[in-house]
Amino acid sequence: MKYIIKIIALCVILSQTFLFADGPYSVGIVTEADGLRNGPDYQGGIVYFPIDAEGPLSTIVMVPGWMRDISSIETWGPFLASYGIVTIFVNVNWIWEYSMPRAYALLDGIVTIQEENVRDGSPLFGHLDLEQIAVGGWSMGGGGALLAAGLDSSLKAVLALAPYLESDYVSPEVLNQDAPVIFLSGEYDDEAPNAQHTNVFFVFTPETTPKLLFEIAGGSHSTVTNPNNNVDMGLKALYWIENFVRNDPTNCSLLLEVPPSASLFATNVVCQTVGDLNSDEEIDIFDVLYIVDLIINSSSYNGQADFNHDDSIDMLDVVTMLNFILNGS
Predict the structure, then answer these.
(1) Which of 45, 88, 167, 267 lies 20 to 30 Å from 78, alpha-carbon distance?
(2) Residue 298 belongs to a domain
(3) How confident is the model at residue 19 (pLDDT cuts 50, 70, 90)?
(4) Same structural domain for residues 300 and 250?
C-alpha cells in the first residue's frame, strides 16, 4: 500500500510539472529521495528546476500556510522553474506553527539550496547563484517570508501571497526591511482580510523599499495559491523576481502595467533604463566602468548591464555601450 501511495504521489508531481510549466524550459525535480537535504527547521522539501537552462540560476524558497502542506502552493514550482527560476518548497515541522517558525523554515531552506549547489550528483551542482535568492509563502507562510526578510538582509525579494501575521508582528518597526516585496491578494479574502493584513503590511513596508500590491478582483484567500488562477498574477510575480532577483529589467514596464483583473493596484517602483547602472539618468563612461567591474568581480547576472541583450555580461556589452555613447546607436 505504501508503494502504491508513493507511485500516486509521484504521478501527481509529474502531472503538475507538465501542466503548469508555461515557460520555455522543461522542468525537473529533486526530492529527498534523490539526496536533497532535510533541515532541522523544516520537515520535507522538493525542488523544481529548469532543465538545460544556463546558470548561474536564481532561487526562490517557498513555504505554505497554517495547517497546509507544500501541495497547497506547489503549482508555483513548475511555473517559475519553466521560466528559469529554481523553486524549493519546504514544510514546517508542525503544520499548526505560526509565522516565525515559517520564517526559520525558509532560512533553513536557503541552507539546503546552498548545499545543493555543491552536492555531488545534484543536477544543480555549480549552477546556482547564491547571491540571488528570494523567499515567498502563502498566508502565514507569506507572513513568514516578510519576517525572514527582516532576519536576513541578503535576500533579494519577497513574494507575499495573501500574507497573514499575528498582531505582535504588525508594526512599521517589524516590517522595516529592504527586500523588495510584491503583495498578491484576493479581493474577498475572509481568512486574512486585506484591511487587516495585506494592505496594512504594504503601508508599513518603508517607502524606500520597492513594493507592489495587486489585489485580484473577486479573488479569495486561495486564489493566489496557483499562478494559473490569474494569468496577470503569475506574470507579475515572475517579472518581480526577474527585476529584483535576477537584476533583469526587461519586463519592468509590463510589471507596472495595471492589470484589468485588479480591484486594487499600487506600487512605488520606477523602471530603470538598461545601461544606466549608476542610476544617474545618463548612459556614459561611468556605466562602462561599472560593467567592467561586474565582468571582473561578479558572477551574478545583471540585466541592467546586458546592453546587447544576449543574456550574458561580457566585453560585447562594453563595446556595444561605447558605440552607443560615441555614436548614439
Answers:
(1) 267
(2) yes
(3) low
(4) no
Rounded Cα gap, residues 271 and 213, in angstroms: 16
Question: What is the SS3 assignment for 129?
Answer: strand
Q: What is the pLDDT of residues 89-101, one digit of tens each?
A: 999 999 999 999 9
Structural domain contains residue 274: no
Rounded CA-CA distance 189/196 in Å is 11
pTM score: 0.84
Count of the separate structural domains present in the chain? 2
Q: What is the dihedral of CA 136, 142, 146, 147, to 10 degrees?
A: -110
**Which residues, 6 or more positions from 317, have their beta carbon under 8 angstroms from its beta carbon?**
291, 305, 306, 307, 308
Q: What is the pLDDT of residues 233-266, one digit of tens each?
A: 999 999 999 999 999 999 999 999 999 999 999 9
CA dist 137 and 183 (Å) reads 11
Give the three-state DSSP class for 40.
Answer: coil
**What is the distance of C-alpha 162 from the center of its chain?**
15
**Pair 208, 289 in one domain:** no
Look over the chain and give the mean of its residue pLDDT values, rounded to a whole number: 90
Classify residue 314: in a domain, yes or no.
Answer: yes
Cα separations in angstroms, 104 against 4, 107, 308: 33, 5, 40
